[in-house]
Amino acid sequence: MSNVGAVGAVLMVGFVLIIFKLLTKPPISYLSKKESTSPPRTWGYRSSLLEVFKTRVSAWMFLPRGPTIIQDAYDKSKGAPFSVDVPENRYLVVSSWKHIKEIDSAPNDVLSL
């Protein structure tokens, strides 16, 4: 087996182990225990992994399609604040003067621009 083939095999095994770990790990819950609603055990892990994958793919699609994504979200929001997922963050967009003034008047310890 050549060195390239060995490195490829090690990378493939590592990838399979990471996927296995993600599938067997319970989903992270940001809700308190009282507010938590757990999904059925039969599809909870796979659906949470699928949702994370879909969110990440849509965030990376911001790079080639950013203006279109922002315009579509703006049209759907009808003037209300909306968020856009980007590869490293999530942007909250406001477009009305009322919301801009509200953000501007917020104390720095509560909200900073």
Describe the 3D structure.
There is one protein chain. The protein is mostly helical and 113 residues long. It has 2 domains: 1-27 and 42-58; 61-113, no CATH class. It has 4 helices and 2 strands; from the N terminus they run αααββα. Strands 1-2 form a two-stranded antiparallel sheet. It is elongated, with a radius of gyration of 21 Å.
How is this fold's topology laid out?
Layout (H helix, E strand, L loop, with lengths): L2 H22 L19 H17 L1 H16 L4 E5 L2 E5 L3 H9 L8
Antiparallel strand pairs: 1-2
Give short descriptive properties of this protein.
single chain; 113 residues; mainly alpha; two-stranded antiparallel sheet
Quick structural overview:
This protein is mainly alpha-helical. The protein has 2 domains: 1-27 and 42-58; 61-113, no CATH class. The chain has helices spanning 3-24, 44-60, 62-77, 97-105, and strands at residues 82-86, 89-93.
